[in-house]
Design brief:
Radius of gyration: 15 Å
Helix content: 55-70%
Distance between the termini: 25 Å
Strand content: under 5%
CATH superfamily: AhpD-like
Order of helices and strands: HHHHHHHH
Structural class: mainly alpha
Shape: globular
Number of helices: 8
CATH architecture: Up-down Bundle
Number of strands: 0
CATH class: Mainly Alpha
Number of domains: 1
Largest sheet: none
CATH topology: AhpD-like
Length: 157
């Protein structure tokens, strides 16, 4: 499959993406645990059907030492015993923050409270920024049908 647009060939996209990618780097450098970041990126991308992001974040997580079992169980995290309480809270927040149209009210107070039990304010801020960032990136990639499979670990760092 060929992408509908090649972002890096567009002057407009190139200018905007420079800042967009800088925002992504800031989130990656935040105090939110790296494993949590990759799990959340995967879950948001699964919900949104973003093949390019699934390709990238699966490979990045594996390269960082994430196990195949945990990667395979992200879609069914509620039933899986391999995630910590903090990771479960982050995944739940990610799901509600991604499915805002389906959630009829957005993120409920109980989900927010569970996340706040595990993460301090700076980590919560990074988590919210990551969820929002991934939703935006997913939409850019899905709209333009960015292909998956060729991502190389560290390609955008």
């Amino acid at each position: 499959m060929d992408a509908r647009l090649v972002y890096f060939a567009s002057p407009t996209a190139g200018k905007a993406l420079k800042y967009f990618m800088a925002a992504g780097r800031e989130i990656k450098d935040s105090p939110l645990p790296a494993a949590t970041q990759e799990l959340v990126a995967l879950r948001v991308s699964q919900i949104n059907g973003c093949a390019a992001c699934l390709d990238m974040h699966t490979k990045e997580a594996a390269a960082a030492g994430e196990t195949a079992v945990r990667l395979h169980l992200v879609p069914v995290w509620r039933e899986a015993t391999v995630f910590t309480g903090a990771e479960r809270a982050a995944l739940e927040l990610a799901e509600q923050g991604t499915r805002v149209a389906d959630a009829a009210g957005g993120v409920d107070d109980e989900v927010w409270a569970r996340a706040a039990e595990h993460y301090d304010e700076e980590q919560l801020t990074a988590l919210v920024m990551l969820i929002s960032f991934m939703n935006a990136v997913n939409r850019l990639n899905v709209i333009t049908r960015q292909p998956a499979g060729d991502y190389r670990v560290g390609q955008f760092h």
